[in-house]
Amino acid sequence: MTVIARDLRPDVRADLEGFVRVRRLALPYMLFTPESVAFDIAHAHPEAELRRLVAEEDGEIIGTAQVGIAYESPEPGQGFVNVYVHPERTHRGAGSLLVRTAEEHLAARGATKFYAWVLDEPGNRAFAEGFGYTASRSAHFLRLDLAHGTLPPLQDPPPGVEIRPGSDFASDPRPLFELDAEATLDEPSDIDTEFTDYEAWLDETWRNPLFSPELTSVAVVDGRPAAFSAARTDDGTRYGTVMTGTARAHRGRGLAKLAKNDSLHRARAAGYTEAFTGNDTGNGPMLAINKWFGYETCATEVRYVRELI
User: Fold this and answer.
1) N or C end of the chain, less CB within 10 A?
2) For residues 121 and 87, is the Cβ–Cβ distance under 8 A?
């Protein structure tokens, strides 16, 4: 049986469904749909040099790779390659083939550092280290049972604070872009990220088919967004918060917790039964907030890096 690596064909439904099937089996803590995968490809920033690769064996997609350049970082030459293989189709060469194909793509476009997220399991870590990658920081995937768990009761915001849905900003999302950009600057990461392109943010975040402005909650102070919890939903019953943050001038007031609690309550009322999120293991304040909500760690990833000499 021969395994080949090729680009995903976003206009072929079977490709999109095969890509999502593998990702959901290998990484069930993140939200993907065929529509969101096609959207990401169609709306990728040119400087991202984005590719979605698949490994195919006898017509079956058994592996996937997300590959690109971290164009939003002020440090040039940083690329990412995240490879996942169907759990029942490992040890057939799919992962190795995807890594080699991805690295060739990144090197040809000037990348000198390759970053990869790897599930914290002995076999996966050994695979990454076999390609010359070394471990860096780690992050937890967290899950909350919305159907049977007990959420903290909703609290009235303090005087001068209003909790509003993200959909209230549909006519002008720029204030949310500015808040997201400020909060992202302080996110723990190997790769610094600076949101400077509003149109790119609209394409990649606001207009993403997974994004739910209705379930996104925003704490507003003096008419300006001060904290938020951004929500995504899939085509079933899963909901995720992909970013929760507060403007620097308003930190320490519990506004992010208020916003996230509001979003969680509305997600449960809308029929979503599982909530997912992720946190860097060094992000103590956000881990404490999520523990307060009742989230439990369901998996851990380790960030690996390989630097070309």
Assistant:
1) C
2) no
